[in-house]
Specification:
Length: 64
């Protein structure tokens, strides 16, 4: 398994934990999501159907 495949798998797991399909499954609290690395969270939320938008420069001023 390559790094890219492992990273895609990791993102899939995190999305399943954040947005479970079962409505009764425990969900993450906002404080737990807040503790994530901002760049990983940004990439996780911009990932569409397993396709990453690519490497984009992100500046802290754009996040805040």
């Amino acid at each position: 398994m390559t790094f890219v495949e492992m990273f895609a798998s990791l993102k899939s797991i995190y999305k399943q934990m954040m947005f479970p399909k079962n409505p009764y499954a425990p969900k993450w609290a906002l404080s737990e999501i807040d503790q994530m690395d901002v760049h990983f969270f940004y990439e996780l939320m911009n990932d569409v159907d397993g396709q990453s938008p690519g490497n984009q420069e992100v500046y802290l001023s754009d996040v805040w």
